[in-house]
Queue: 2 jobs
Job 1
Amino acid sequence: TQLLEQSPQFLSIQEGENLTVYCNSSSVFSSLQWYRQEPGEGPVLLVTVVTGGEVKKLKRLTFQFGDARKDSSLHITAAQPGDTGLYLCAGDDYQLIWGAGTKLIIKP
Amino acid sequence: KAGVTQTPRYLIKTRGQQVTLSCSPISGHRSVSWYQQTPGQGLQFLFEYFSETQRNKGNFPGRFSGRQFSNSRSEMNVSTLELGDSALYLCASSLDRGRSEQYFGPGTRLTVT
C-alpha cells in the first residue's frame, strides 16, 4: 500500500516566522500536488511539481520536489495569518495518493 | 468559469436513512471524484467517474454508490446510514483523468444522528 506521510501533523507559530512542512513516501510519483484547505471549504490547488529536483515559488511559498520524486517540501517565509489552513499533498501514481495533511496555525 | 458546486451544503439524517448528494463539475471537466473527509481519517477516496463510467473505487462498503450523467454532473448515494458516516463529503472535478489536478467544491457536511 502506497503511503504519503506528512509532517508535522500540527504546527502553530507566530506571524513572521519561517516554517517547512514535509511530504514523504517510499514510492516514486510522476508528479505531486499541494493543496490548502480552509475550514468549511474544499481544498484549493496551490502547485504541481513534476520534475525531480524542481523548485516552484508562489509568493512566499516555495515548493520542492525531491530528486528521486519520492518526497516534497513546502517552505513558507514570513508566515501570515492568512496562511492558516490544512496543507495536503497528493502523489500521482495511477490514482492520487493523499497525505493526511499538516494543520498550520499562524498566530497574529 | 463557475467552480464546482455541491448541494446541499449541510444535511442531518438519522441512522438507517439514505442520502443523495449532488455535484456539478466545472464546465468542460469530464472527471468527477468523490472523497470523504473526517478529522480522524483525513481525506479518503470514494470513487471516480469519467464519461458516465466508474473508473476507480476506494475501499468503502457497497452502501456507498455513485453515478455520473451525460452532462458530467454526478451524484453519490449512501444507504443505511451509520453514525460513522458523519463527515464532509467533497466532490472534485478534473479536466481529464482523476489523477490530474483536482478542483474541489465546498463539500456537503453530513451529520448522522
Job 2
Amino acid sequence: DVKVTQSSRYLVKRTGEKVFLECVQDMDHENMFWYRQDPGLGLRLIYFSYDVKMKEKGDIPEGYSVSREKKERFSLILESASTNQTSMYLCASSSGQGAWTEAFFGQGTRLTVV
Amino acid sequence: KQEVTQIPAALSVPEGENLVLNCSFTDSAIYNLQWFRQDPGKGLTSLLLIQSSQREQTSGRLNASLDKSSGRSTLYIAASQPGDSATYLCAVKEDTGKLIFGQGTTLQVKP
C-alpha cells in the first residue's frame, strides 16, 4: 500500500514562528502537493512539486515556501506564522502525468496559530 | 482556468437508499477524475479513479461514471449505510499533473 505520512497530526504554534510541516511518501512518486482545507473554501493548492528541487506555485502561495531536496520528502514552510494560517494542511503524492496515476493523501496536520 | 463544482453541497438520506453525487468540470482536457472520501478531521481516501478514456469504474457498491465531453461525473452509491456518512470529493487531474478539487458533498445516511 502507498503510504503518505505527515509528521504531525496536531500542531500549535505562536504568531511569528517559523513552522515546518513535513511529508514523506514511500512509492517513488514524482509529484507531491500541499493543500490547505478550510470550511466553505474546500481544498486549495499551495504548492506543487513535479520533481526533486522543482516546484510550482499553486493558488495561494503567499506566506508559504516549500523544499524538496529528496524525492520522497516535501516540506511546507510557514516563514512567519500568522493566525490566518490556522487550517488543516494536507499532503498528497502521485506518479507522473499519466491517466492511470492515482493520488494518495496523508492523514492531515491540524495547525493552530495563536 | 479549470473549475470543479459538486452538487449538492449536503445530502441526507435514509439507510438503504440508492443515491447519486454529481461533479462537473469546465475544461474537458483532463487526464483522469478521482473520487475521494473524507471522514471528519481526517485525510482523503481514494475511492475510484476513472481515466479520461474510460466511461465508468466500479468498486463494490460504488459506481463512478465520466462524460468528458459534457464535463460531468457521477458517483452512484447503492444501498447506502450509516457508515457511508462522510464528505465525498471529486478531483480532476490536468495535463500539468495538478489536481483540482470540487468543494465536496457531505452525506449523512440515517439509520
